[in-house]
Design goal:
Length: about 200
């Protein structure tokens, strides 16, 4: 099983099923000449409402009362410690940065890096994971009338509308745009209070 399966499942659980009641820090936008970035964080707490040990399925009840079932792959250590009633804290962050590379010179490429860590045997269940995707494309055309930049990337050509005229005016044919998308997820399990 691919190591990001649990990350993807928990991202879906936290952002799709629990989004209405998740605590979000809102989007943060940073603009500098030739660079713009946006980031958002979502925090959610769910309660384990059911566990199917044979299938390694965990059913999480979100703040809205709805259940979502996720599969804990073999990379999830200490599965046997999970109990119905335990709280699962999920923190998810994603960011996108677009940066102008004047004069180009970088290889036109797409790179992806993933990492995942899980709790050591015997420790409280938990995991962290991240993924970073970077794409570099060449600026092959500019349309000042529509403030559109045409980029030729490693797999396709795309048009990018630049809404900020000052940013658009910084871009020239032959420059490059580097787009970096990062997502990170942390999951921590808090045992339910002993009765």
């Amino acid at each position: 099983m691919h190591k990001s399966t649990l990350i993807a499942a928990l991202i879906i659980a936290s952002t799709a099923s629990f989004a209405a009641n998740a605590q979000s820090s809102g989007a943060v936008v940073d603009r500098q000449p030739g660079k713009v970035g946006i980031a958002q964080a979502v925090d959610v707490t769910a309660t384990i409402s059911a566990i199917d040990a044979a299938k390694r399925e965990i059913t999480l009840k979100g703040p809205d009362g709805k259940d979502t079932t996720v599969v804990a792959g073999p990379e999830v250590k200490n599965f046997s410690q999970l109990k119905v009633g335990d709280k699962v804290d999920i923190q998810y962050v994603e960011a996108l940065v677009l940066e102008l590379k004047k004069g180009g010179g970088l290889p036109v490429a797409r790179t992806e890096k993933e990492s995942m860590t899980s709790a050591k045997p015997g420790a409280t269940p938990g995991a962290t994971g991240s993924r970073k995707v970077t794409v570099v494309g060449d600026v092959i055309a500019l349309d000042p009338a529509t403030q559109t930049v045409t980029l030729k990337g490693p797999q396709r050509t795309a048009d990018l509308k630049v809404r900020d005229k000052k940013q658009f005016d910084l871009i020239s044919k032959g420059d490059q745009i580097e787009a970096t998308y990062t997502e990170a997820l942390a999951v921590a399990v808090k045992p339910s209070a002993k009765k």
